[in-house]
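Extended Data, panel c. Modelled sequence:
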Amino acid sequence: MGMATIGLIGAGHIGSQLARLAVKHGHDVVISNSRGPETLAELVTELGPKARAATPDEAGAAGDIVVVTVPLKHYRQVPVAPLAGKVVIDTNNYYPQRDGQIPELDTESTTTAELLQAHLPASRVVKAFNHIAAAALTAEALPPGPNRRALVIAGDDAEAKAQVAALIDQFGFDVVDAGPLSEGWRIQRDTPGYGPRRTASQIRGDLAAAKRYAEMRQPS
């Protein structure tokens, strides 16, 4: 894909690694967190002249693509207006011990990305980067080839998914499309594809084998 500005709302392990990959591949990045731009000075210095720190609103407004990578319990704090009309990458996962109980996720009536999409009704949300350890984002990136690691996306907007897929390919990973946001549960916590290094063919098998939490809890 061409050069873009990547806005990051959240600068933890995943956010900082995605910023490193973006800068490495020629993109500008605007990074934000909940504690203020001044707390990101060290990361911005490391990343160099293509990176700057900002507030979440500013990062959202600046980004051609915006990455939301905050603890799920804070998703309602993501600014809505600056992200209208934009492709938004959702990296979130649901960890009840961190996020508290979220009833609609406990009943599996929705998914984490659908929650964010409902919060950002004018944005085009794509689930991505949620099933890979942060360190692996830079350590396991490879040019195209037979043993390349694959990452899963899900989304309701075909054009948005195409943009995110191009970015993931540029970053060094194959892409497997799981379908709409409602199918994002197939790569959530405790599913077969969540975590391990998998090629495209392997992760397609993992997606097919995934079970809902309710089914996992049933005695065998």
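The chain is about 35% helix and 15% strand. This feature is highlighted in the accompanying rendering.
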